[in-house]
Design a protein that fits this description.
425 residues, elongated, alpha/beta
Length: 425
Amino acid sequence: MSDFRFLHAADIHLDSPLRGLSGQEGESAMRIRGATREALENLVSLAIDEEVSFVIIAGDLYDGDWKDYRTGLFFVKQMGRLSEAGIAVFLLYGNHDAESQITRRLPLPSNVRTFSSKKPETFTLQEIGVALHGQSFRQRDVTDDLVTNYPPPVPGNFNIGVLHTGLGGMGGHANYAPCNLDELIEKGYAYWALGHVHQTAVLHEWPHIVFPGNIQGRHIRETGPKSVCLVTVKDREIREVTTIPVDVVRWARLSVDAEGCHRMTEVVDRIGAALEEAVATRADGRLLVCRIEIAGHTGVHGQLLSSEESLVSDARAAALGLGSDRAWIERVEVSTHPLADETILHDREDALGEFSHLLEQAKDDKDLLDQLEGDVGVLVRKLPHEIREDAEDPTLESAIKGDYGTMIDQVKSFLMARLSPEKGE
């Protein structure tokens, strides 16, 4: 058996729409929309440059059924590049690209071998003494433990198990193809190439049990570098597992402290400083897509809440001022507090104090809560599943949960901030 290296990737989600771009145009927006393709190109280029023997894709190559054939044709083209370099590819389908999910198929180059969904299948590379075992998903919701039927290791070979699994629901991911760490260890394989969890994680060494994470972050919950794993094997032993970023767009949350600010211009200056620091320390030369989270007690709390559109425009101007393809603003969230204590406003003997009392009492008004359930509750239940599942606006999230008391509190904070006098400009 010769020494060799291989790339382990998963969760490519090719042509998956990146969130936070609604209505946005320009070069940066176009680049973000094409990020999953560019990340796959980077993966292929890395495999060629490192002269790996093979590439493993452990599920969710696609994000679901293609809108048209261009998605499949792009993948075939990239596999053709690997074929020209003499690099084999072992492809396993997961929950997003299960056989039942993808209705269109294209012939793949001869260097690409796809694991069967009917039962575990073994591929061997005799020239380097490698055996790869895996089973693709037939349908999206695989609730059976697939590992049970994986074959024993092939004697005299470096054995790799390829599996798309939630491994008990790691990282909040759905627990598809459930199994546990001990079960994988006891199988006797030298390496488990896992997919489905979008965070890089080496769960065990000797045998190595590895999630490479996804190759391109797609929304604000997938922050930081996104990578593949380069595995070096010598004398049938793993000598090194190196995590190599291939993402082209990176997501980041930036906290901006507006404590003590009395003018909007001060807040905008602090946003600009936070962006400049983040680009220098987190981007690694990539386009950084940022969610700005503003906090602290400030004299312009009400203005911040009521000036969302202009605030986002100011933040995007600050990002553009850093140069082309340096930073992009996905959203600005305001979590500030007024300088005046809300309890003081509540105790005022004027219309504002009375309004505060009414809003506070509304949380215990059964008739009002029933009416909200009949109006707001019915409305949110009609929202598409993906919107309800991924809701990030706090007020919408409360409405979806049916927590109308919290929703009233959130509305109260907004209204009191708008109605309370502030100094600032």
